[in-house]
């Protein structure tokens, strides 16, 4: 604790992102980045945007991006909240929607760990709701609560399990808690789950969060957005404009719009990732791993006979990075991003060797 710090800084536990190694030629399957690059049209838009026009501030409303998202999902532009990566949108959501004194925010015990970090930052009590033994979210656990919570948040598909709830189950949770925001973080939704955006009209308390970092292969640009009722987005924009009027730079806006418009490229790349996920799952199972059913661009797998931390470090020695969480219930799992077929083959060959060695 420095005497220059504000009091609350001493109590923060910052989120730890997966490693971004400086060494090249590693096989990087640890942060769920896309194995293929962004749409060539997005790259062209960035090149085109690199001009004298950068002396001017970007559009504070990111209007063209809000319009593109609104078009794509059939909602109004006023229902779209843009942000510098979905993590920033999430920060504004916590700040604007979840600060209700002592009322706790409900979230699964196993989910995106950044939610707990934001709870600390914004002084929001968190109540962790255990996942079922099969690692699924049980909607019943979020219904019939004695006191209204501050809100509910979960990722769908969930991270790091990759498992998804159906829309009927999300609707049950939202309808059971009509007076609080129910936030569905859909960072991985494009890899096989259905978006809850269509529920917003019936359930105006639902907030859906999307990112360009995963399925649009633009993690390096930092673009995300939320979709919600106009009323909720208005509150989020108030917070945004009290923090940073220009969260998205001109190049990011141009790239995101172009990526969104290039539907063919998006579909082709998504298909390749889905095919590789099936291949990776089969291979891991043949080595003896149990693999949770994934609707994301990663799989969550454990080997009954081998310690996950040791496997992760064995892989690392061979230049392959995967994610291992030192957390209760999941410390025997590896989270493995679906890479190119070649990367996945190298991974599986290495795991096959590591699991053949006696321990
Ligand atoms: C990757 C991820 C994010 C963050 O996405 P950015 O847009 O890169 O900030 C948010 N939520 C979940 C569940 C994620 O996996």
Structure description:
With 359 residues, the protein is α/β, with parallel strands linked by helices. The chain has two domains: 118 residues, Aspartate Aminotransferase, domain 1 (Alpha-Beta Complex); 222 residues, Aspartate Aminotransferase, domain 2 (3-Layer(aba) Sandwich), CATH 3.40.640. The chain has ten helices and twelve strands. The protein has a seven-stranded mixed sheet with strand order 2-8-7-6-5-3-4, sandwiched between helices. A three-stranded antiparallel sheet has the order 9-10-12. β3, α4 and β4 form a beta-alpha-beta unit. α1 packs antiparallel against α7, α3 packs across α6 and α8 runs parallel beside α10. Bound molecules: pyridoxal-5'-phosphate. Pyridoxal-5'-phosphate binds next to α3.
Residue ranges: pLDDT <50 for 5 or more in a row? none
Bound molecules: pyridoxal-5'-phosphate
Q: What is the percentage of strand-forming residues? A: 5-15%
SSE string, helix = H, strand = E? EHHEHEHEEHEEEHHHEEHEEH
Physical arrangement of strands within the biggest beta sheet: 2-8-7-6-5-3-4
Total of DSSP H or I helical runs spanning 4+ residues: 10
In short:
The chain is of the alpha/beta class and 359 residues long.
Indicate the topology:
Layout: E1 27-29, H1 40-49, H2 63-73, E2 80-83, H3 86-97, E3 105-108, H4 114-122, E4 126-129, E5 151-155, H5 167-175, E6 182-185, E7 206-211, E8 224-227, H6 230-240, H7 250-261, H8 263-286, E9 290-291, E10 298-302, H9 308-317, E11 320-322, E12 333-337, H10 341-356
Parallel strand pairs: 1-11, 3-4, 3-5, 5-6, 6-7
Antiparallel strand pairs: 2-8, 7-8, 9-10, 10-12
């Amino acid at each position: 604790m420095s005497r220059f710090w504000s009091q609350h800084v001493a109590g923060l536990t910052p989120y730890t992102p997966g490693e971004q190694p400086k060494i090249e030629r590693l096989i990087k399957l640890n942060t769920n980045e896309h194995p293929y690059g962004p749409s060539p049209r997005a790259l062209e838009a960035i090149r085109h945007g690199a001009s004298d026009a950068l002396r001017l501030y970007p559009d504070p409303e990111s209007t063209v991006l809000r319009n593109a998202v609104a078009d794509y999902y059939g909602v109004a532009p006023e229902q779209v909240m843009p942000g510098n990566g979905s993590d920033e949108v999430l920060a504004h959501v916590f700040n604007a929607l979840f600060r209700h004194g002592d009322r706790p925010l409900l979230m699964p015990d196993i989910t995106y760990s950044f939610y707990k970090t934001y709870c600390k930052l914004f002084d929001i009590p968190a109540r962790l709701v255990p996942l079922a033994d099969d690692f699924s979210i049980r909607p019943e656990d979020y219904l019939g609560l004695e006191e209204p919570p501050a809100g509910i948040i979960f990722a769908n598909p969930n991270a790091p399990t990759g498992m998804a709830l159906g829309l009927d189950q999300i609707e049950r949770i939202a309808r059971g808690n009509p007076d609080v925001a129910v936030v569905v973080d859909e960072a991985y939704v494009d890899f096989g789950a259905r978006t809850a955006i269509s529920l917003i009209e019936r359930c105006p308390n639902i907030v859906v969060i999307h990112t360009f970092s995963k399925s649009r292969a633009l993690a390096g640009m930092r673009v995300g957005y939320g979709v919600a009722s106009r009323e909720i987005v208005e509150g989020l924009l108030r917070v945004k404009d009290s923090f940073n009027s220009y969260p998205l730079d001109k190049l990011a806006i141009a790239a995101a719009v172009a990526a969104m418009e290039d539907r063919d490229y998006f579909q082709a790349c998504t298909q390749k990732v889905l095919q590789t996920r099936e291949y990776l799952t089969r291979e891991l199972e043949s080595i003896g791993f149990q693999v949770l059913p994934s609707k994301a661009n990663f799989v969550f797998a454990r080997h009954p006979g081998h310690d996950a931390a040791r496997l992760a470090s064995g892989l690392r020695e061979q230049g392959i990075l995967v994610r291992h969480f030192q957390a209760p219930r999941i410390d025997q799992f590896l989270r493995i991003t679906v890479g190119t077929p070649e990367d996945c083959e190298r991974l599986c060959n290495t795991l096959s060797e590591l699991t053949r060695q006696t321990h």
